[in-house]
Write a structure and sequence with these properties.
The protein contains seven helices and six strands; from the N terminus they run αααββααβαβββα. By secondary structure, it is an alpha+beta fold. The strands form two sheets. A four-stranded antiparallel sheet has the order 3-6-5-4, with helices on both faces. α4 (44-89) runs antiparallel to α5. The longest helix has 46 residues, at 44-89. The radius of gyration is 30 Å and the shape is elongated.
Length: 222
């Protein structure tokens, strides 16, 4: 107990007297510490250098991670801009669903993308994007407050994909005119990679995709 108290007092004294080692510079070379890196005894100066190197290494790793994340975000932003631009270039409203699906698959390298809409005008009742939408699918869409990300649980909506059996993970995005409104469609992303869409992934970006898609496809509801 005495050793602990004495050590604390010494530490406090050194903290309160930062000029101590300036006045007793010879001690810097005499004090020996055990190095966790080499296991041998090193001077206080050498140990301080080891600590500084560790800190710089940690900072370099942190900086590298920040740069990697920034590059990934920049790449995603570029893809999102290209996808949005493709939607804006569509001259006919009826072309929007196909452009949206094809460009989403192309820009973001999603193996399978599906789309279904409902509550549209009579001009779209025979279109591919309004077919095979059951009441259960609509109820499922209404139950999603946020996009679903996770394994393929054989959702009925995944039957709209070209090869539903190959899908191991999926993201299912309800399309709404506004927050809290009843959805008028579902956008499906499917991948054979079980880790492509997981419950742990963030959904903020998927919400941006859903909002943009809903805004563009709103032209079909006029």
């Amino acid at each position: 107990m005495t050793d602990t108290v004495d050590s604390a007092l010494i530490a406090q004294y050194l903290a309160d007297n930062p000029h101590f080692f300036e006045e007793h510079a010879a001690l810097l070379g005499q004090i020996k510490l055990s190095s966790p890196l080499t296991g041998r005894a090193v001077s206080l100066q050498e140990r301080q250098m080891e600590v500084m190197r560790d800190k710089y290494k940690a900072l370099e790793l942190h900086m590298a991670e920040l740069i990697r994340t920034a590059n990934e975000n920049a790449a995603i932003a570029t893809k999102f801009q290209a996808w949005t631009a493709a939607l804006l270039r569509a001259r006919l409203a009826a072309d929007l669903p196909a452009v949206l699906v094809e460009q989403l698959a192309s820009q973001f390298h999603v193996p399978q993308v599906g789309l279904r809409l409902w509550d549209l005008g009579p001009d779209h009742q025979d279109a591919w994007y309004t077919q095979d939408v059951s009441e259960d699918a609509r109820l499922f869409a209404a139950s999603l407050a946020t996009p679903y990300c996770g394994p393929n649980k054989e959702f009925e909506a995944l039957r709209w994909l070209a090869d539903a059996a190959a899908v191991q993970s999926t993201a299912i995005l309800p399309l709404r005119d506004a927050a809290g409104a009843r959805p008028f469609g579902l956008l499906l992303l499917g991948s054979p990679d079980a880790q492509r869409f997981t419950a742990q992934m963030g959904t903020d970006f998927l919400l941006h995709i859903a909002d943009t898609a809903a805004a563009a496809l709103g032209a079909l509801r006029g």
